[in-house]
Amino acid sequence: MLKILTALSLVAVPPQADLALPEPTGPLPVGTTDLHLVDESRPDPWNPEADRRELMVTLWYPARRDSGERARYLSPQESAAVLAPYRDVPPDALTRVRTHAGRGAAVRAGRHPLVVLSPGFTFPRATLTSLGEDLASRGYLVAAVEHTYESVATTFPDGRTTSCLACVPGQDGAVVAAGRAADVSFVLDELTAARWGRSVDRSRIAVAGHSMGGNSAAAVLAKDRRIKAGANLDGTFIPPVERLDRPFLLIGSPRTHAWDGSDDSWKKSWAHLKGPKKWITIAGTDHSAFVDYAVLRPPLGIPAQELDGARALRITRDHLAAFLDRHLRGRKTPVPAYPEVVDQGRKAAAFSSAH
C-alpha cells in the first residue's frame, strides 16, 4: 500500500462503519476457499531462513448454489498491520468487511477459464476481492496470490503472521516481478493438477494485477506460455516491456498513466505490445481506485479518489471482464459508454501516425 499509507489527517470513524464490497454483477453464485501452497523446489527469496517458498492463495469460483458463510476479509493481525498508520481507525475495522462469496461452497461442474490475480506491493491479496468475486460470478475460476513477505501482513492457517521483509528502501521492482512470476507459475502448476485440475480449462488462462502485480503480469507472460492474456491495473512497468505477443490490457489513472502522464513506462512499452491491446484511463481515479480500497477508504475517513468508489470498481470490472471474455472465450461482451473512460491507445496511434 505504498500509495495510500501515508501520514494523513483522518476524521473520527464510527466503530461499526459500514464496510461492504459491491455485489458481483454476473449471474452465478460465488464460492471461495483459501489454499496454503508450498514450493519445495526453491528457497524463499526474502527470508534466508526459509528453504522453501510458502504462499497463501484465495480462490473464487462459480458455485453450484449460494451457500456457506461469507468469507472473512482479513485476519485481525492483517487488518491491524494495514491500518497501523491510521491512529483514528479501529485496528480491526477490516475484519468486518462484508464479502459475497460462500466459504467452501461446491464448485460448479465443468472446466472454467482461470485468471490469476497479483496484488500491489505491500497490498494483501484480499484487496482484489471485488475483482475476484465479480469474475467468478461471470464463470471464471480466480486465484489471488499473496506474495509472502511482500504484503504488510500474511496470516497462515497455523496462526503465524509474517511481515513485509521485502519492504526496504530502494527495492528493485524487476527483482520483485521476477520472483512473482515464479510464484504465479508455481500456482498454475498446483491448480492445473490434483483436485482443482478438473475445474480448470488449461487452454484459457490469464494473469492480471494491480500496481506491482500489473508489472508482474507482464513478467510472467514473458516467461510462461500457458498464459494467453494479461492486464495491468495502474502499475509501472519495471523495466518497460521489450516484447509481448499476447493480448494485454492497461487500465490506469490519468495523472500517471495517460499518454502524457507522469509515468512514461506505458508509453515506452506500447509499441512493444505486439498482440491485441487496449489502453484506457478512468477520470477521477487514483492509484488505489482499481481495487477494494476504492470503496473501503471513504467510510474509514481515509482520503480517496474523486470518482465514487463503487463506480470506479464497476468500470474496472466491466472492462477487465470484457477483455478476458474476448481473448479467453471469444465473446464480445458489451461495455457501457462510461464518460470517465479515455482511450489512450487511440492517442498513442495518432501520435505514431504523426511521427
From TrEMBL:
Name of one Pfam family that matches: PAF-AH_p_II
Organism: Nonomuraea wenchangensis
SUPFAM superfamilies associated with the record: alpha/beta-Hydrolases
InterPro entries: AB_hydrolase_fold
GO molecular function, one term: 1-alkyl-2-acetylglycerophosphocholine esterase activity
GO BP annotation list: lipid catabolic process
Keywords, sorted A to Z: Hydrolase, Lipid degradation, Lipid metabolism
Protein name (record): Platelet-activating factor acetylhydrolase, isoform II
Classification of source organism: Bacteria, Bacillati, Actinomycetota, Actinomycetes, Streptosporangiales
